[in-house]
Amino acid sequence: MNVIFLIVIIGMTIVSYFLMKWIYGRFPHPILVPVFTTTIVLVCLLLVTNTSYTTYMSGAKWINELLGPAIVAFAIPLYDYRETLKKNALTIFVSVLVGSIVGIISGIILGISTHVNKELIFSLAPKSVTTPIAMGISEMVGGTPALAAVYVVIAGISGAMFGPFLMRVFKIKHSISKGIGFGTAAHAIGTSRALENSEVEGAFSSIAMTVSAIITSFLCPIILSFFF
């Protein structure tokens, strides 16, 4: 029974993703980004079948385990474009530094303007970095790691959905600039979206995601101390 349940859960997740990916290929609208629509489909399936998230993850955890190797695989385009990365090192650092600061402050201001408590703000501040680091930062400053993980997912999906539109609006056309934007604002999900466009975007998004995580780890507690 356990084996059958495992197969059903994994199969349901994979089939949902590829179906949503096929739909996105036919109708490439931002709202139909697979990572978003697949999430909606799975949530609906869990609600209809009255399956708890814990029960779902008991089977889907094996897919979740692939997240680590997937992140490591981002190193491949980094290696391929290492010379270009070296030439643009200063541009990358300054851009990611500014982007990280804006990401932290925007989260804090959003929390303050909506009058939420400090715990929620401390969980929201590190929203633009990858999940494990955001959870660690949140716990360190007094937030709730689980909430931080939710905000990270929302930030990533939002970046993947609306990033291309915003870049067209602001006439950002250079692959390096677009890659840095995706990686800084939308971490791994944004990097995955950048790789769909080109390997160059993916490479710069990957390094931006890494540098952003380091910078945010140092600056988030400091910036929060100015507000609270």
Written description of the protein model:
The protein has twelve helices and no strands. Helices cover 84% and strands 0% of the residues. It is globular.
Q: What's the β-strand tally?
A: 0
Q: Unreliable runs, pLDDT <50, ≥5 residues?
A: none
| Radius of gyration, in angstroms, nearest whole number | 18 Å
Could you spell the SSE succession in H and E letters? HHHHHHHHHHHH
Structural class: mainly alpha
Question: Secondary-structure map with pairings?
Answer:
Elements: H1 2-26, H2 34-48, H3 53-64, H4 67-73, H5 75-80, H6 82-87, H7 89-113, H8 118-124, H9 131-141, H10 145-169, H11 175-197, H12 199-227
Helix pairs in contact: 1-2, 1-3, 7-8, 7-11, 7-12, 8-10, 9-10, 9-12, 10-11, 11-12
Short description:
The chain is mainly α.
Question: What labels would you give this structure?
Answer:
12 helices, mainly alpha, 228 residues, single chain
